Amino acid sequence: MKLGFDIDDTLINLREHAFHIYNQKLGQNIGLDVFDALPSMEIHSAFGLSKEDGGKLWFSLRDEIYYSDCAIFPHAREVLNRLVEQGHEVYYITARDKEHTERTRQWLLDHGFPVADGHFYCGMSDSEKVHIIEALGLDYYFDDKPTVLETLAHLPVRICVKDRSYNRDLTLPRISSWDELDELMKG
């Protein structure tokens, strides 16, 4: 089987990691209860920042956010390694800017993710992910972002959403923890 995975907030807890960095950089102590209740992907509102100021802060901190000690969601790495050991093909499809391609791929390798040659795609917009997913002929695709998942409805791929506060209105098969994957794939 061919399985595709978004990275940020699907395999790694990037937004929560950024939330902690924002707290530190802004000298604030906003609790995770506020983070967990955010209705959208953007975290700037929790810090009283406008969308423009939040975007500037994110851009200025991207390297620290992307390449420091961001937590991997429990079981994600182990499940993907097991899938590869079982003969499945694992693909990574991320909308991170193209300039982050090699560093992101190396980060995955350094953190024990199985990244085969030709199985890593980076540097496209969210709306362009659909073309890669279609061209690869994936059997499953996992992502957290509603705008991406909604563009895939016409494809013959089983779409699964990684559960996050901002995507709970989606009526798609949902995974809260990566140790649920075997059960989800049986259904």
TrEMBL record:
This is Nucleotidase. One of its GO terms (molecular function) is 5'-nucleotidase activity. Belongs to the 5'(3')-deoxyribonucleotidase family. Keywords: Hydrolase. SUPFAM superfamilies: HAD-like. It comes from Paenibacillus oryzisoli. It is an enzyme of class 3 (hydrolase). The active site is at D6 (nucleophile), D8 (proton donor). One of its GO terms (biological process) is deoxyribonucleotide catabolic process. Its EC number is 3.1.3.-. InterPro entries: 5'(3')-deoxyribonucleotidase (IPR010708), 5_3-deoxyribonucleotidase-like (IPR052419), HAD-like_sf (IPR036412), HAD_sf (IPR023214), Nucleotidase_putative (IPR009206).
